[in-house]
Amino acid sequence: MKDTFKHQGLRQQLVNTLKNKGITDVNVLKTIGNIPRHLFMDSSFLDHAYQDKAFPIAADQTISQPYTVAFQTELLKIKREAKILEIGTGSGYQTAVLCELGVKVYSIERQLELFKKTSKFLPKLGYRPKQLIFGDGYKGMPEEAPFDGIIVTAGAPFVPTPLLSQLKIGGRLVIPVGDQVQTMTLFVRKGPKEFEKHEFGEFRFVPLLEDKN
Question: Which of 23, 33, 82, 137 is most buried, judging by how many CB atoms fall within 10 Å of its CB?
Fold first, then answer.
């Protein structure tokens, strides 16, 4: 669990890469610069931890490319103390980014192996989401709704209606939609039944699976 000067230097290089790719949110960049991403990966991948690439983790899942994490987080337009729902805890890296930004994080993971691993691991690094549950992300977390923002970290073939309904008015849902390749999509809730939709180019994610554990 070491975080050396070398790691910190590599992180600053990563931050510069993200700036060059168009990430402008100062808080998001600072957060990426603070979080030891190498600790979220198998030690065999340590050399790759600060490259702007996705990498495999347990349960056939991946830790998202840092640019994707930064891009999705930037789209949420997070304010401190906001209530954010994350669909797909995965390695916990995106969860840590949200915690570091000072929001109340509620996160759902459907892979039991990852859920057990990440729920033990995050507190060791000092990240304490409000709630981390094992369950079906398609259903969201109605008992905790409404949310200021919802972030989906897996490719969804369609937009789950429960997630839209769990947004506050003015809330933002960031979700990659599509089968083989996903289009990063933002929904902003304008009224009880009104949503504004924006699309932001193509990304690749592991699939968001329904009712499969």
Answer: 137
